Each structure stands twice: as structure tokens, then as C-alpha cells.
Amino acid sequence: MNRYIRDGDNPDITEERMKATFDADRFTEFYHGGAKRLKSRREVEKYIEDHKELQDTHPTPFMSREELIDNSVRKLAGMAKYHKMIDMTNIEKTTYFLQMVHVRDSMAFSLHYLMFLPVLQSQASPEQLSEWMPKSLSGTIIGTYAQTEMGHGTNLSKLETTATYDPKSQEFVLHTPTISGAKWWPGSLGKFCNHAIIVANLWTNGKCEGPHPFFVEIRDPVTHKGLPHLKMGDIGPKLSLNEFQKYYMAKAIAFRIGGDELQNIFKKVSKQLRLGEASLLPGIHALSSGLKALVTFEVQGGIEQCRLACGGHGYSHASGIPELSAFSCGSCTYEGDNLVLLLQVAKYLMKVCAQPAEGEICGYLHKKSFATNSELSTHKTYSDHQIIQDWEHVTRRVVLQAFQKLRTESATKQKHEAWNSCSVELCKAARWHVRLYIVRILLEKISTAPEDVRPVLRALAKLYIFDLQVSKQGHFMEDRYMSPQQIDQLKSGISEALATIRPDAVSIVDGFAIHEFELKSVLGRRDGNVYPALMEWTKHSKLNQKDIPEAFEKYLAPIMKKIRAKI
């Protein structure tokens, strides 16, 4: 049932894999969206395994910052040489290739592939594309996306960089009038890129027309010297970016399914947009904003739980957890601060409360007839319909309570003051809206899963959902919607789900199909031979290359020599 079993593996992990009640490969196919997508991932993994130039020379925790940059650029040169996996018509495969090569090290040109090229593809005219895209794909143009400023990130309308149109010369003059307006954080802008898509507020005829993207050459493409009137440089070291337990597993499934379904919805909406239909776009924007905020926060907490579960070894870089934690924590801020995004969700919800919107995403807010008490009798008979009904009830109440408070505050305060005074309730409403989406999509998707993996997936889903309900039981028990006895049933359901998942735990993680190049963890290695691997890992430390450290000879030895002479 588990193809990860090999001769020479640690017997304990082999014993765990032998307990599997499902085919791990079938689980992997479901988790990654089908056999075709899984095949694509494994093609990438095999390609990197076969090309040493795309791999780290030794563990990155033992590298200095300069060595990390050198290692990243070396692998990038290898990607240019072995570019078979880079296909801009298959963004998913290309992104996975970049991710596997660079993992969490500071990839010199990550934004070139992940931001610069997509923005160029979507925003440039046909004439501009014919001029710039071939050079950008070949590597002659190396670009980044420069939107964030030292003093402005999420607040896009307040960007200080200006682009003033001069009608006489028919040119745009870009200017950074203040220090806080300096472009800050765009990857590789300071040292490696020769072009940038710079987002600036456009001014023409004395009027600001709002943020616009500008394609700008910043370095000489031959000499790589910075162009006149530009100041560029490195902003210093960053936190990481020098570049499971059973509850982890349940959340991983829920978040993965929620994200995949959002992509499917977006594809449908994109088709409608091409036909001029945009009514569903605000709901998708709110949902994507909320998912980003909720999931990144939960992931950070989950990483910390993994560290605690590893005991003392969780502190070691050998576990891969410190690097993963430092890498992940930034996601709560970049690409939209989480609190700001939650308020974006809330803004949409308040509009829907006032006037119903099309689609199923917010349909629960205006249901005319709904239960006043939960229909849960036992956790074994708690149906998907009943679960969603209970979640809709609580979410509806939380959202409408925030709406009512906003209306009350707005009667006596300015609009922004009223909004600020309700921000706690608004963020809660946004979180419940996103949780409801995840619960609904999780149950829908699992109901279509292959029969042989459906039982373990249902156990994971129940663990995730019931645990949330118990941890938020105050909301479910408000107005006596749920009784203490019903909460006890949910607790029993959690215990049963844990017992069901336990023998399958290792095989579930195997089913995630996370390659060891990507995991970068001595503790998480497939063969389970952790202790010999930990000892081998220490050999990469430069301190272990000499018996006596230079610092000892330089500072301590002379002092000790003097002390001994006096004894």
C-alpha cells in the first residue's frame, strides 16, 4: 500500500508504513489534483535529481550570506543551461521547478519568473511584448516587480513614487521625492536586475491618475553598471530569505483543497471576464484575500507546533524547521498585510449584508428559513448537510452582528471612525466567512474522492472541522444553538478521528509527496535513519574542520598560558 518502503529503512518507520489502510499513491493523486499533475511534479523532481548543478553543494545553514547568494546564482546558471523544465505556458510546472531548485534560499531572480514575466505578459501591448518578452525569456533582460516602498506596502494609493507625463517630450519622468518613497524589498532590484516594472502614481496635467506600472531600464544591459540618477543597493540581511502531527495533517488537507478550488473558480471567472461579465469578481477577491490571511497565520502556528513536537532537535537547523519558520513568517505581511486583507473581506461582506450579491459564496447571509437549533445527535450520524447548516448559522450571526454594530456606529460617527471602531468584529466576521468556505469545499471535494482513500480523508476532515467547533464552542452554544451534550459528541468525534488516523499517519505524510530536496530536513527524511544522518550533518560545520578553533588560539590560549605560569 506504500511505495516509500525500502530496504535499509529504519524499522520503526517501516512498521508505521505497513499499517496503511489506503494506497499512498492514490492519496497523492487526489491531494495534488490528479495523475497528470502528479506526473508533472515527478518529472521535475527526477530532472533535478539527475543534474547536480541544480542542487546545493552542502546544507545552506552552514553557508554565509555571500555563499548563499553565490549558491543561488550558481543554481540559476544551471537553470539557464538546463531549461527544459521552464515553460511559461505551464506556470504550475515552472513554479514547482523554481521552488524545487531554490526551495527557501534567496533565489536571485525569483520575482523575474513569478512577478515580472506574468505582469509583462498581462499588461504589455502586442508591440511591447514582441520587443521585451523574447529578451526577458532568454535572460538578456532580468527584471523584478517594484511596488513596495520603504513607507508604503499594502496602502497602494499612497505610493510616493511619481511618474509625471511631460507632453512636450512625450516622456514619463519617474521620481522618488522622499526617503520613505524609495522602492524597498523588491527581490534582486539592488544588485542583479537590469530592468524593473515600477509602480508609480501617474500625474498628468496636474492630476493624479492613480498607480500605474512602468517598464524601466535600471542598469546597462552590457556592463551591468547602474544608470545615472539611480541609487541601488542591498538592504541587508532578512529573516530567512538569505534565501507533522495529526492536526497538521488535517489542516494541510483543508487548506490545500480550499486553495485548489479557489483556482478553479478563478478560471471560470476569467472566462466570464473575457465576455464582459464581472459580477462574481468582488466575491473572489474577498475570498482570496481571506484565504491568504487565514491560512498564512495558521501555517505559522503549525510550524511552531511541529518544532515543539521535535523536542530539542526542533531548535536545530538540521530539522529544517527554523529556516521554514523564518521563511513562512514573512507571508503574514508580504503580498498584503493579513489584517488589511481581512478588512477587505469584511468590506465586501458589509456590502452583501446591505444588498444581496449573486453566487453561492455569500448566499447563506440571506437565507429566509434556517434552523434555530443544531440537528446534531451523534458525531457518527452528523451529516455534511447538518455540519454546513451549523457553520452557516454561526457565520451568519457573526457577520450580521458586525453589520449591525457598524450601522449603529455610523449613525453617530464619521465613516472611517465608525469602521475603525468595529475593526475587531469585522475581522472576526471575515475569518468565519473564510472558515465556512473551507468547511463547505472540504466536504464537497472529499465526497468525490476515490473510494479507497475517502475514509481517511473523511477522518481528517472531521478532525479539522470538529476541532474548530470545539475550540470555538462559545459561538456554537450562543443562544443555546448547541448544547453541552452536543459539544461532548464533537469531542468524542475528535477522539475517534485521531484513533482512525493514527495507523495511517506516516502514509498520509508520504501521500503529500514532499521531496527531500524541498523538505531539507534531517529529521523528516524518508528512510527514518535520523541519528546517523544528524551525525553526518555536523561534518559540514567549518568549526569541525579543525580540532582547535582559531578564536581559542587567538584569545583564550594566551590568557590560560599566563594563568598557568602563575600557578
From TrEMBL:
Record's GO cellular component terms: peroxisome
BP GO terms, sorted: fatty acid beta-oxidation
InterPro entries per the UniProt record, alphabetical: ACOX_C_alpha1 (IPR055060), Acyl-CoA_ox_N (IPR029320), Acyl-CoA_Oxase/DH_mid-dom_sf (IPR046373), Acyl-CoA_oxidase (IPR012258), Acyl-CoA_oxidase_C (IPR002655), AcylCo_DH-like_C (IPR036250), AcylCoA_DH/ox_N_sf (IPR037069), AcylCoA_DH/oxidase_NM_dom_sf (IPR009100)
SUPFAM superfamilies assigned: Acyl-CoA dehydrogenase C-terminal domain-like, Acyl-CoA dehydrogenase NM domain-like
One GO MF term attached to the UniProt entry: FAD binding
Cofactor(s) this protein requires: FAD
Subcellular location: Peroxisome
Acyl-CoA oxidase C-alpha1 domain segment(s): 248-350
Recorded superkingdom: Eukaryota
Lineage: Eukaryota, Metazoa, Ecdysozoa, Nematoda, Chromadorea
Name of protein: Acyl-coenzyme A oxidase
Family according to the record: Belongs to the acyl-CoA oxidase family.
Domain Acyl-CoA oxidase C-terminal: 385-561
Active site residues of this protein: 335
Main location: other
Binding site for FAD: 148, 187
Keyword terms of this UniProt record: ATP-binding, FAD, Fatty acid metabolism, Flavoprotein, Lipid metabolism, Nucleotide-binding, Oxidoreductase, Peroxisome
Pfam families: ACOX (PF01756), ACOX_C_alpha1 (PF22924), Acyl-CoA_ox_N (PF14749)
